[in-house]
Amino acid sequence: MKFYHEVRGCSLAVDIVARELGIALDLQWVDMRTKQLGDGSDYLLVNSKGTVPTLQLPDGQYLSEGAVIMQYLADQRGDTKLFAPPGSLARYRIMEWMSFIAADLHKGGFMPLFKAVTPPAYKQIARQYLHGRLQWVNDQLADRDFLTGPDFTIADAHCYTIAMWTRAHQIDTSTWPHLEAYLLRVGSRPSVLAAEQAARQHGERERAVQQ
């Protein structure tokens, strides 16, 4: 399946999940500034929203929104550790985290910091809000290895990807020891190391071409 991906984007979480599941994805890198693919074609013809990620399904249809794609992939394998069985409370707990990460951390917290048009005063408000949310995540991790308990789930792939943006915005995480330990724990997984390496290598190739 073709997977439309961005270096340093939220789409990393989907690549991590696919690698956890042993699902090989054909990575199609998107230049989000120009909305172009590597062959120069228009990404908007794939996803008219112009956002990543997007997954091309075996029947040719396209599925967007990372949280949904991760659920879809886990269901293809029936992996009940990555995503709990349908109808179980554990599944809804994972979905609860997925919603929080997308709304509070990604869109509500980090996105205003990424946007050049965000007024400086609002960026400060966003930072304060984000600090509060990250403190809350830290507190939840005080007695568990992963977000919902002892097992790594799609929510952890999602949370790790977004929380690592603290580095891009020079947000000191040392005051959140449980979160720091969690990021190290997740970051050491083979799936994460491989997904990050793929993104890093593509980024290096792109920089070499531009020089």
UniProtKB/TrEMBL annotation:
It holds the Pfam family GST_C. Residues 1-81 form the GST N-terminal domain. Gene3D superfamilies: 1.20.1050.10, Glutaredoxin (3.40.30.10). It comes from the Bacteria. Residues 87-209 form the GST C-terminal domain. Signal peptide: none annotated. CDD domains: GST_C_Beta (cd03188), GST_N_Beta (cd03057). NCBIfam families: PRK10542.1. PANTHER family: GLUTATHIONE S-TRANSFERASE GSTA (PTHR44051:SF8), GLUTATHIONE S-TRANSFERASE-RELATED (PTHR44051). This is Glutathione S-transferase. It comes from Achromobacter spanius.
